[in-house]
Amino acid sequence: MIKVAVTGAAGRMGSGIIKKITEQEDMEVVAAIEIPNTPLAGNDAGIQAGIGELGVKIVGSEKLEETLKESGADVLVDFTIAHAAVETIKTATACGVNVVVGTTGFTDEQMASNIKNVEENKVGAVISSNMSIGVNVFFNTLKKLAPLLYDFDIEIIEAHHNQKKDSPSGTAMTAFEVIADALERDPEEVGVFGRKGMVGKRTPEEIGVHAVRGGDIVGDHTVMFVGDGERIEVKHQAHTREVFIAGVIRAIRYVPDAQKGVVSSMNDVLGLE
Q: Going by CATH, does the domain composed of 133-238 fall within 3.30.360.10?
């Protein structure tokens, strides 16, 4: 039985993850963590998630270390915000707990810190900008298409709900990085994030990345390969957060036996090239 701790336990993703874990036969929720000094402390995580009493009380993240040790968690799942997730990962890895992280918006320095903590503490880790199984097939498709369409103009358009704080989305940035790497282009030189005013003629090498925010869009990502007289569009649309949660469950099963001290991706979880 895999013992799982969930951060952001009262949020939309956290509650959904808790619910889905309780439906599995090989894992259980043993800890539910929220923001420091949360007013929800002491509330039952199952009742908070709308699934009935679970017997696991919500605690504030100021008690993360002692909660992980007392609960005997094997895996911590984090879907929160970047600056909080960095500290959570630091604490969890120091406690010898494997991590599954779907939080987005990490800076290069924050991601380097995450990798360092995983390496130094020799734990398993899956860190992905998007846990959706379909999106990771989408990434794999882009990796294979880009070299075939090297002389096409490439534009990435992402759309999300009006509550999303980071932009562009982590998924759009991963798509950008996958394409740039496949084409052997330097991401620092070819990325164009939105256009305004007299920007001049489009260069053949640049890759455009654009963000739309509105309503309750769960997550849409479109990559346009535009040639003379034709174009190919590769699109992924998430209709529900359940698609991310399904990937989280796979990652939870994968990470206890993953290579220690290495940050794995959903490609590793799904066995994609």
A: yes
**51-76 tens-digit pLDDT:** 999 999 999 999 999 999 999 999 99
Q: What is the DSSP string of 190-220?
A: HEEE---SS--SPPTT-EEEEEEE-TT--EE
- According to CATH, where is 3.30.360.10 located in the chain? 133-238
| Active-site residue, from 90, 160, 221, 236 | 160
Residues in the chain: 273
Residue 160 falls in the annotated catalytic set: yes
The pLDDT value given to residue 3: 98
Q: Specify the pTM.
A: 0.82
DSSP characters over 32-92: EEESTT-TTTTSBHHHHTTS---S-BEEEGGGHHHHHHHHT-SEEEE-S-HHHHHHHHHHH
| Chain centroid, CA 220 distance in Å | 15
**The pLDDT value given to residue 189:** 96
Average pLDDT estimate for 234-238: 96
239 included as an active-site residue: no
Report which residue type is found at 79.
F
CATH topology for the 2-127+241-270 domain: Rossmann fold (3.40.50)
Q: Is the pLDDT of residue 104 over 90?
A: no
Region(s) of the chain under CATH 3.40.50.720 = 2-127+241-270
Using pLDDT thresholds of 50, 70 and 90, give the confidence band for residue 129.
confident
Exactly one of 57, 63, 143, 164 is catalytic; which is it?
Answer: 164
